[in-house]
Amino acid sequence: MVDLEGELVATHSSIDLHNRDDCSGARATRRQSPADGPVVGIPRGLLYFRYQPLWTTFFAYLGITVQVSQPTERSRFEYAQSLTRSDLCLPVKVFLDHVARLKDSVDYILLPRVISVSPEAYMCPKILGLTDMACNVFLNLPGLLTPRINAKLPKPEGFAQACFEVGRHFNNSQSRVEKAWEVAQKAQIEFEQRLLSSPLDEALSPWDETFSGQDSTPAFQPRYRVAVIGRPYITFDSALSHDLLHLLKRQGVQIVTPESLPREVKDKESQKLSKQVYWQMGKELVAAAMHYMQCPEVDGIINVSSFGCGQDSFTNALVEYYVTKHSQKPYLNLVMDEHTADAGLNTRVEAFLDMVDQRTKIGPFWTRVIEEEAKPFSSKKFVKQPRSPEMHLTIPHMGHLHIGFEQVFKNLGVHITMPPRPNKEALMLGTRYAPECACLPFKMNLGNMIQALNQGATDIMMPGGFGPCRFGYYSVIQEQILRDLGYEFRMGRADDPDSLRDMLDMVKRIAGLRTKWDSYKVFFFILYRLALVDWALRRAHWLRPRELERRATDRALGRCMQIIEETSRFRDLWQAKRKVRKIFAAVAHDRSRSVLRVGIVGEIFMVLENYANMNVEERLGEMGVEVHRGVWLSDWLNDRYRFKLFRRNQFKWALRQAAPYLREPSGGESVKSVGKSVGFARKGFDGIVHLMPFTCMPELVAQTILAKVSRDYHIPVLTLIFDEHTSPGGVQTRLEAFVDLIKRKRGLKEEYSGY
Ligand code: SF4
After folding, report:
1. How many whole angstroms from 77 Cα to the centroid of ligand 1?
2. How far does residue 123's CA lie from ligand 1's centre (Å)?
3. Among positive and negative, which fits the CA dihedral 442, 444, 449, 454?
């Protein structure tokens, strides 16, 4: 829950009242007679279930009419699904449907950009991109109120500032807005207090009449107390939850939820994890499960999530791991989507309650005397270290990353074993042990780790981070899975890849270097090797569609990579570059051939790792297409360590390009996917190929927005979504159809095939 007390204190010091009308073309059009005053629409989805009392009280105090969209209806799921082609989760699609239901009957829609409400955690990437997605999905939106809430900024932007910004938008005096904020804040705090003693629907009823009369106390003495762990916008939305809570109530169950626990209790539980979950709601769900699993008065735990939820692929894994491995509580995991059938749900709940019944033969929870405080557990206790202290290092593959460091470390005497290049075995191993809906890069990495551990590796080095996408938490879930499989190893996490100091320390530790200067030399040598690899790849992308002999470029590229790998000093890099240039110049090609130009954007692992994207670039090259990547490893590194002095910061450049479509980064490469696509379109490219893993949250935001970029610039965008079921044949067919389409669009003759 947000620290509103803190906000009250801050209010007076940091008010910065600027008017931000975000969505170009969205303007307040008068729908009501001026006398009635403006009407603000609030979509009944996602964070509505958290902050509704604050916003409705605030607007009410200012005399602004609030119109909340009607409760979610299952009959509209199909329409909600039709709003975008992207595989967004159902809660987000339903949210967009709520916007659709409001947009023609209100003057404004409240769509705050909620990035983070506490410094240590983000909201879901899809919530970060929600306002931008709504702006790009709907063409004729009324005025939008889009204040930003971001507690992670050096100068945090909180709810107070957001209210002031919105309040001034309606020409209210500062004192009046301050009063409205105080009243709204009290309402929100009261709501959060109520949550500690009653379920959310009851706690919310004073501010939302659709919940009033929904008496949650069952007519008869409840037999069980069950913790329902789920996001409030799913569990308390009777359509999205398929009325689960009422079903449980009818079965004599009293429900407790994460919202029923004070923040301190959840924070205390979160500390027990080796690394904090860096998603606000995800963190609370896991903490609540860890708390309730130790409570004797709780008879069972039901975990509820939405199919395709990126976050829950990890938080579910944590909840399931702790509840099933560290408690005896009956546990039921329910994954909901638009296809969930009530009959199936009823059966599963009944079976679960039978299990609870058997487990609680000692009588209902209220008669049980709490014997002893449950033994606290700590995830840190279960780390089995390898017997030999000697380091035998491995690092999972990602594209040509290994060419940067492997030989360098070997030359420095590091015992390093790289797993085999990503292959079918790695994918199968990773898929077998990874959580459902985990993204493909996670599975590839995990498979690589298992292969390397089977080859005797003792130390795994895995880059990390703090969100908002899942990458930063890969190593935690991977370590949990590998330890569960009985492997003994040390997991090294580079959790702050943005920090040059952290990276230098990591190189120093791995290579056993004595001085910081030595670490600098080694680290920047690795960076320049990777920059040379990308330089060679760019030449190959230019040459492949013009080559006269099939695969000549691939063979040349293979030799070039070898030459780069053999460099051992800085000056070798110049010689290597000359050799690479000569090798490519020697490939017979037709420079005058006109080729198609396609931009490749998307999630970095999917763009860089040929095995994962099924050699999309080579396939397009053979179809006579010159590909240009929007994401390069050396650019990613240069944006952080500035070693390519004449190369501008690609992230900042992409953010400027993306501005008309995307204002707030959603993590991962979402900014580059949109910004670079706009850049390619402005340069007259023939098409864009967007690569992403199934359920990738930032790229789902980008995919939703790219539909608008495609319409505005009349540039075809092909999104390829990969998981372990994707087939090379399917990819080939889609690429051929895409190339045919852009060829026709360019008016090129059919027989044009490159060879
Ligand atoms: S991906 Fe998960 S966390 Fe994100 S909005 Fe969807 S359901 Fe919520």
Report:
1. 16
2. 9
3. positive
Q: How far is the CA of 697 from the centre of ligand 1 (A)?
A: 8
Q: Whole-angstrom Cα distance, residue 320 to residue 328?
A: 12
Residues 315, 277: contact at Cβ < 8 Å? yes
> For residue 183, how far is its CA from the centre of ligand 1 (angstroms)?
30
The DSSP bridge partners found for residue 393 are: 416, 459
42-56, 132-146, 165-179, 237-251: least confident range:
165-179
For residue 127 and ligand 1, the question of a CB distance below 6 A is answered with yes
What is the three-class DSSP state of 249?
helix
Banded pLDDT at 625 (limits 50, 70, 90): very high
Say how many C-beta atoms besides its own lie within 10 A of residue 328's C-beta. Answer: 9
Q: In terms of Cα–Cα distance, which of 384, 381, 233, 379 is closest to 304?
A: 233
Picking from 579, 573, 498, the residue whose alpha carbon sits closest to that of residue 530 is 573
The answer to whether the predicted template modeling score (pTM) of the entire model surpasses 0.85 is yes
Query: Rg (Cα) of the chain, in Å, rounded?
Result: 28
Task: Provide the 3-class DSSP secondary structure of residue 99.
Answer: helix
Centre of ligand 1 to C-alpha 312, Å, is 8
- Structural domains for the chain: 39-195 (3.40.50), 217-362 (3.40.50.11900), 379-513 (3.40.50), 595-755 (3.40.50.11900)
CB of 615 closer than 8 Å to CB of 705: no
Separation CA 207–CA 44 (nearest Å):
13
Q: Structure tokens of 524?
A: 């920047």
pLDDT recorded at residue 360: 74
Q: Is the CB of 311 under 6 A from ligand 1?
A: yes
Residue from 84, 309, 316 whose mutation best tests the ligand 1 pocket (most atoms within 8 A of CB): 309
- Residue closest via CA to ligand 1's atom 4 equals 124
Could you tell me if the CB of 89 is within 6 A of ligand 1? yes
The total number of residues shown for the chain amounts to: 755
Three-class SS of residue 42?
Answer: strand
Closest C-alpha to 135, from 657, 662, 675, 717: 662
Query: To 5 degrees, how large is the angle CA 23–CA 28–CA 33?
Result: 165
* b/e map 365-379, b = 16+ CB within 10 Å: beeeeeeeeeeebeb
Task: Quote the tokens at residue 677.
Answer: 């696509």
CB 255 within 8 A of CB 226: yes
Q: List the residue whose alpha carbon is closest to atom 7 of ligand 1.
A: 309
Contact 355, 251 (CB under 8 A): no
**Assign residue 430 a region: left if phi > 0, alpha if psi is -120 to 50, beta otherwise?**
alpha
Ligand 1 centre to CA of 311 (Å) is 6
Stated as kind and residue range, the H or E segment containing 598 is strand 596-602
CA–CA distances in Å: residue 122 to residues 116, 118, 441, 588: 4, 8, 21, 52
Res. 358 pLDDT band, cuts 50 70 90: confident
CA distance 412 to 483: 30
Q: Which two tokens stand for residue 183?
A: 């009243």
Helices (H), 512-603: 516-543, 552-566, 570-585
Residue 295 has pLDDT above 80, yes or no: yes
For the cut 60, the answer to whether the pLDDT of residue 32 exceeds it is: no
Q: Residue 737 Cα, ligand 1 centroid: separation in angstroms? A: 33
How would DSSP label each residue in 298-318?
--EEEEEEETT-HHHHHHHHH
Identify whether the C-beta of residue 422 lies closer than 8 Å to the C-beta of residue 615. Answer: no
Q: Which long-range contacts (CB under 8 A, 24 or more apart) does 208-215 make?
A: 208/52, 208/56, 208/68, 210/70, 210/71
- Whether 667 lines ligand 1, by a CB cut-off of 6 Å, is no
Question: Which candidate, 604, 582, 664, places its Cα nearest to that of 115?
Answer: 664
Query: Tens digit of pLDDT for each residue in 182-206?
Result: 999 999 999 999 999 888 888 888 8
Ligand 1 closest atom vs CA 234: 7
